[in-house]
Amino acid sequence: MREKLVVGVDLGGTTVKTGLITSSGVILAERRLPTLGDEGPEAVMGQVRKSIEGVLASAKGKAVRGIGIGSPGLVEKNGIVKAPPNFKGWTSVPMADEIQAAFDIHTEVDNDANTAAIAEAKFGAGRAFPNFLFVIWGTGIGGGIIMNGQIYRGPSGGAGEIGHVSIDYKGPLCKCGTAGCIETYVGQRYLSARAVEILKQHPESKIHALVGGDLSKVEPLYISQAAHDGDRVALDIFTEAGTLLGVALGGVMNTLDYRVSIIGGGISAAGQFVFDAITASVKANVMSPMRDEIIVIPAQLGNTAGMLGAAGLVL
Ligand SMILES: [Zn+2]
Questions:
Q1: Res 157: pLDDT
Q2: How far is the CA of 205 from the centre of ligand 1 (A)?
Q3: pLDDT tens across 171-199, in order?
Q4: Residue 183 Cα to ligand 1 middle (Å)
Q5: Which of 31, 171, 205, 223 could be 54's S-S partner, Cβ–Cβ 3.0 to 4.6 Å?
């Protein structure tokens, strides 16, 4: 069978990454353009179109069967994108209709957490698992639910918001309006703030030297470097964060009768010790018959996940 060709667009906060992609997940051509999120929706949509034109030129007349786009923000089922964070002047844009009209190619849009989950399901760490929870652990905590090999979107498209599972009803107030969301403990900014508090009590930590004594510079990258260097304080910070994340994940495993979590995003890349902490915590927070079957593994696709998962929307 001839391979199908599609376009996958990863619309990020700073860069639009667009690939010409085969049905087996090979990226044949790629264009990267600045998103221009500060210049309003017209400018952003112009960049998306330009990047698609770029990769279509590389198709050299071969039929392109679809265009998939992973976008930040709330994506409704008809491909309308609402209020992506960090995009100025953007209320609601019918992205799927606009792109489909511009190229006369079938177009699907989904949110970027879902496309990253689809990428792992089709081409990455999730290939062996028809059912898993996908988690992106970075600036915030995002997620997607893969059910019987497909993304589960829920009745209105909002499923998979693992970052807003509360682990303490008296916890810190989250931007979503709920107290104690897991994101308010282990999202990048919160994790860094927590690390600063701990570091004030621990002058012996190597993190102090890594930030030149300036605690306002503390971020997960430095904590990770110190942890790899055997720094006890840094290891404890990640172990605590992984343990808290595992509490939220354990609840989801129980609810869905799931065993497998696949975790990507910048902070998850800190090291195996993070996965050890999450795994131990998930096991401690699921029903006992599930305990021995719990699997927590890293995502495989990194930077290409957005494009591959967007392509997966139309494959
Ligand atoms: Zn929240």
A1: 84
A2: 31
A3: 999 989 999 999 999 999 999 999 999 99
A4: 7
A5: 31
